[in-house]
Amino acid sequence: MGIVIAFIIITAVYVGYHASQTSTPEVKGHSIDLDPQIDSFEVSQEIQLKTDQQYILLH
Prior knowledge:
The chain is mainly alpha-helical. 64% of the residues lie in helices and 0% in strands. The protein has helices spanning 2-21, 41-58. 0% of the residues are buried.
């Protein structure tokens, strides 16, 4: 039983060490703007209305 636990611990340490040593590949792709620009006043009002409704329901 003790040898099985030791094997699991050694394997976990090895995998953890190996994962910490490998660098993540640099990904190149499309740049996505995470801050959307809302041009329409109606869309802005609709979002505000939904936010207010959620706030009322949660409180």
